[in-house]
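Incident log, structure service

09:12 report received: a user says their structure output differs between two submissions of the same chain.
09:20 pulled the input from the user's history:
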Amino acid sequence: MKNGKFGFGVIGCGTISGSHLKAIQACAEAELVAVCDTDEAKGQKCAAENGQVRFYRDCQEIVKDPAVDVVCICTPSGMHAEGVIAAAKAGKHILCEKPLDISYERMCRMIEAVDKAKVKMGCVFQGRTYADTIKVREAIKAGILGRMTLGDGLMKYYRSRAYYASAGWRGTWALDGGGALMNQGVHGIDLLMWTMNSDVERVFARMDHLVRDIEVEDTCVASLQFKNGALGALVGTTSCNPGEKRRIELHGDLGTICITESNISRWALTSEPDGLAKDQEISAPAATSLTAVNDPTKLELTSHAFLVNDLVQAIKEDRDPYIVGRSARKAVDLILAIYESARTGRDVSVKYGD
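09:34 re-ran on a clean worker, output below:
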């Protein structure tokens, strides 16, 4: 820490790093001091464009830099564990992009390393930072919909051939960990469980690559059974052209709440045990409604800024960050169960890590 600011290092200079770089710049108590990428040309370019900060080719080296207090993990999904564990062992705090990782065992090792080192690790799920989604979660926790009956997540995205060709790791089991669910749909899956205030207990799924010539799925459907007794459905694609806005639909015996992207789009309630729910007036959505339906560069930046600032405050106050590893991994644990069900053709119980 220098001049009252935490030094940040960014590991991985691909598309998502831009959101982290802007978030660091927006935080009054953070400054970028170094970047790291195995692609030297890409990494040097990033360093030059962001104040001529130091450049490293190896994550094991950037974490040795005494000016680096916090690292942002922006590498391909299957490489998150390497960066997190290296940072934790070096005593650095961490902000890890979604998904936490793509392997059950590696996520366990990551969390163990963070706990052992007594460092803070915040995780990125922008959906949890918006005013409307927080309002929905609190309403459902308060029982406003009565007995929860159904929770659906519709993530009908589009990704072009050029998108998958843009980086060798995209659309691979080894580094992307999956397709439409693990990369794009993980946000909606996390948001669905978070707003339902319940984990998924069992799944049955089918998936295939119907449009793109990739190893992983571009189309998946899954039937869900939540621990609170509700049922649900997931649809996750990168094959729907031109794509649809993400919808989370939550139903209880006293009403319905729907979220389109990050805004409440329906709020229908009744106070009568057998009454018909009536639509309530909904506040106008925020003016800045960027969407990643068909362009992954159009991500709302304020959410990353929120999470960077929260991690800084968590370090100062010695508290947990807003989204901790044990919470962030649940969406991945569910996706892994969905993949197992689709491969085996069986109903699968979801195995969550501690």
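09:41 both user submissions now match this output. Likely a transient worker issue. Closing.
09:42 reviewer note: Residues 133 and 262 are 6 Å apart (CA to CA). The domain at 130-294+332-349 is CATH 3.30.360.10 (Dihydrodipicolinate Reductase; domain 2).
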